[in-house]
Amino acid sequence: MSETALIDRRWIARGAERASTSRFLLWLFPWVCLLLLGIYAAGLCFYYGLNQTNMDNRFAFGMWIFLDLAIIAMGAGAFFTGFLVYILKQTDLKPVLNTAVVVGLTCYSGAVAVLMVDVGQPLRAWFTFWYPNTHSMLTEVTFCISCYLLVLILEYIPVLVQNRQLRHIPSFLVFEHQAHKLVPVLAGVGAFLSFFHQGSLGGLYGVLRGRPFAYRQGFAIWPSTFFLFILSAIAVGPSFLMLVVAAAEKITGQTLVDFGVYRKLGFISGVLLALYVAAKAIDTYVWLNITSPRLGFGPWDYYSYWPLSSTFLFTATVPLGLLPAILFIVPRTARHRGLLLLAAALTCCGVLLNRFVMTVQTLALPTLPFDPFLKYIPSWQEVATFGGVLAYGVIVYSLSYRYLPLFEATKGEAKNVSLD
Amino acid sequence: MFPWTDGFHWTPTHIVFLSLFGAALSVILATAVWGLWNTLNAFRQHLAAATCWRQNFGELPATERRCRHELAGRVPSRLCDHAFDCRTCPNYEKFAALPANVPASRAGVSYSDNLLYHRGHTWVRSDWDGTFAVGLDPFAQHLVGSPDAVQLPDVCDEVESEGIAWTMIKNGHKIRVRAPLAGTVISTGGPDRDFYLKILPHGQPNLRHLLKGPEVAGWLAAEVDRLQMQMSNGKATLADGGTLMPDLMDTEPGADWDAVLESTFIDR
Amino acid sequence: MTARYGMVIDLDRCTGCGACMIACAAENNVPPAAPRATWRTGVTPMLVHTLSNGKEGVDRREAFLPIACMQCEHETPCVSVCPQQAVELDKSTGIVMQMPQRCLGCRYCMTACPYHARYFNWWDPQWPPGMEHSLNPGVSVRMRGVVEKCNLCHARYHDALQKAAAAGKKEIDLADYVPACVEACPTGAIAFGNLADPNDPVTLAAKSPDAFRLLEAIGTEPKIHYKTTQAWIRALADRKAARPTEAQHV
Amino acid sequence: MKFSRRDLLIGTAGATAGIVFTPVPWKLLGDVSIWSQNWPWIPQPAHGPIETTLSACTLCAAGCGMRVRMAAGFPVGISGVANHPLTKGALCPLGYAAHQLNWHPARLLQVRHSGRASSWPEAQAALAAACAEGPIAVVDGRPGRAASLTLETFAAKRNGSYQTVLGPETQALAPYAAWSGVPASALGYDLENARTIVSFGAPLLDGWGTPGRFTRLWSARAAGQSDPQLRLIQIEPVLSHTAARAWRWVAVREGTQDALAAALARVLVEEHLVKAQGPLPEMTLEQAAVQAGLPIAEIRDLAHAMVEHGPTVVITSDGDPAVAALNVLLGAIGTPGGISLKSKVSPQHGAASTASAKFRATLLDASVPWDLIPPTQGEVFRFAAWDGGGSKADWLLPSPGFLEELTDIPTAPTSATETYTIATNLLAQPQETQTAAQFLRKIDASLADVDKSIHARCEQIFQVKLGTIYAGQTKPVSQFESAAKMEEQLRKGGVWLGESPRNATLHCTLKTWPATSAPASPTDWTSSWAPPVLPPLASKLYQESTVREAPAGRPA
Question: Is A3 among the domain residues?
Answer without folding.
Answer: no
